[in-house]
Amino acid sequence: MPKTILKVKNLNVKLENEEIIKDLSFEVRKGDVLTILGPNGAGKTVLLKTLLGVLPYRGEIEWMPGIKIGYVPQRLPFIKDIPLSIKEFFKLKGTEEKETKEILSLVGLNEDFLNKKMGDLSSGQFQRILVAWALIRNPDVLLFDEPTTGIDISGEETIYALLARLKEKRKLTILLVTHDLSVVSKFSNFVICLNKCPICRGIPKEVLTLETLRKLYGEEVKFYEHHRH
Amino acid sequence: MEQVLLSLIAGIFIGGVAGYLGTLMLSKKMALVAGPLGHLTLPGIALALIYGFDVSLGAFPFVILGIIVIWLFEMRTKLPMEALTAIVFASGVAITFLFLPIEQAETALVGDISKVGFWDTLLVSFLCLSLFLIIKRIYYKVVLISISEDLAKSEKVNVKKYNFLYLAAIAIIIALGVKMVGGLLTVALIAIPAAIARNLSKNLFQFSLFGLLFGATSSFFGILVSKAIGFPAGPLIILVATFFFLISLIFKKR
C-alpha cells in the first residue's frame, strides 16, 4: 500500500465568523488523484488554501515531513495590470531561463512564449504556465484550484490529459478542486463532496449517485446532469 | 550656477527612485496609499518651516504615523480607501493651515528644491542610492506578493518582512519627495512615471527602467525650466511628467 502523505482530521475553518468548512477528515496516499467536488461557495478553494497553510484552522493537518507542494491558483486577477513576460514570471521564483524553457516544453509550450506577456495569453495557455510554474523544483504534490475545462482553440491536449501525463512523468500526487462533475470519475481515484459539511467521500463511481449529487447541488443538479457527456 | 547643479543632482536622485518605486505600486490599493501619506506630511512640513529644520525630517514622523493610521484603518474598518484619502487629506491640510503662516504655505504645498545645500544634496544622494539598492533587492518578491499573496506564501516568502521593507521605502521616498515637490504633489512624483512606463513597456525590466528614467528626466527638465522662467520647480516637475505621460499615450503598447 502506498504511503500516506496527508492526514486531515476534524478540520474546521472559520473566516470572519462564518463557518466555511466543518468537521472534515480524509487521507491522501502517494499517487492519488483526489478531487474535491462541490458547488460554488462550498469552501473548496478555502480547503486548498488551508492545506497550503495560508489560512487559520482548527483540527489536524499532517503532511508527510519534507514534502514539497506546488500550488496552482484559480486566477491571478492583478497580473494583467503588470507588464510581465513569461520569462520574468518564472524569475519571480528564481528560475533561470534554461530551466524555464525545459518546463515550458514539458507543458507543451515552445520557446516563443518566453518573451510573451502574461496578460496576452489565452486562458488555456495561462493555466499551462501556472502548472509549469508550480512544477519548478519538483514538488511531490500539486494543489490545483479549478482547472478550466475550456479547450484551447488550437485543439491541443486538454488540461486533464496534461495532468495525467505529468502525474506519470513526475510521480505526482494531485489534489484538485472543481465544480465540474464530468471530469471526476474520468480522472481521479478518490472524491470528496463538499458543501461546507462533507457530504460524501470515496471512489467516484461508487459514491457519486444521483442522491448524493442532489444533496450536493440541490436543484442545480439538473443542469449538471444535462451537461454530462 | 553651482546651486542649480545641486538642485539638479538632488532632483534626479529623488525623482528617479520615486519613479522606480512607483512601478512597484502595481495594485490599485498601494497607489492610493501614497496620496494620503503625502498629504499627511503637511503638518510636519509646517513644523519644520516654522522652527527652521529640514523639511524631510519634519515629514518623516508624519509618514510613519500615516502608515500606522492606514494600517489600522485597513484592519479595523471596512471604510473604502477613497473615504480614508479624503479624511486624511482634509485633516492634514486643515491642521497645517491652523498654524502655518500663509507666506510659507507655498513651500509646504509644492516644495522647494532651489535652495538645497551641499551636505543636503550629498545626504539625499546617499539615501536615494541605498533606497534604490533595497528596492532592487525586494523587487521580484514584492511583485510576486502583489500578484498573489497566497502564491507568495506557498513559496515560503516572508510576506510581512517584504511588506514592511516596502512600506519603509515608501515612507522614506515620500519624506524626500516633499522636499522637492511638496506635500500635495508627492503622490504624482511616484505615480506618473510609473504610468508612463506602463504605457511604453512590454515587460517588467522595461517597466522599472522607464519608471526610473522618466522620474529622473521629469525632475531634470522641471528644475531647468524653473530656473529659466522663475516659477517653483515642484509643479513644473509634475507638469513635465504629465507632458511625457500624454506623449506616452500615443506610443501606448497594447
Characterization of the model:
The complex is a heterodimer of chains A (229) and B (254). In chain A, 31% of the residues lie in helices and 27% in strands. Chain A has helices spanning 44-52, 86-91, 97-106, 123-135, 159-170, 184-187, 204-207, 210-217, 221-226, and strands at residues 4-15, 18-29, 33-37, 58-63, 69-72, 141-145, 173-178, 190-195, 197-202. In chain A, the strands form 2 sheets. In chain A, strands 5-6-7-3-8-9 form a 6-stranded mixed sheet, with helices on both faces. A 3-stranded antiparallel sheet of chain A has the order 2-1-4, covered by helices on one side. Chain B is mainly α. Chain B contains 11 helices and no strands. At the A-B interface, strand 5 and helix 2 of A face helix 7, helix 8 and helix 10 of B.
Q: What structural category arises from helix and sheet content of chain B? A: mainly alpha
Estimated helix fraction of chain B: over 70%
Proportion of residues in extended strands of chain A: 25-35%
Task: Report mean pLDDT of chain A, rounded to a whole number.
Answer: 86
The greatest interface here is: A-B, 23 and 24 residues
Provide the low-confidence segments of chain A as ranges.
225-229
SS element count, helices of chain A: 9
Element-by-element helix/strand order of chain B: HHHHHHHHHHH
Count of alpha/pi helices of chain B? 11
- Helix share bin of chain A: 25-40%
Q: Structural class, from helix and strand content of chain A?
A: alpha/beta
Order of helices and strands of chain A: EEEHEEHHHEHEHEEHHH
State the shape of chain A. Answer: globular
Cα-atom radius of gyration of chain A: 18 Å
DSSP strand count of chain A: 9
β-strand percent of chain B reads under 5%
How far do the termini of chain A sit from each other? 33 Å
Give Rg of chain B in angstroms.
18 Å
Identify the quaternary structure here. heterodimer
CATH homologous superfamily assignment of chain B: ABC transporter involved in vitamin B12 uptake, BtuC
- CATH topology category name of chain B: ABC transporter involved in vitamin B12 uptake, BtuC
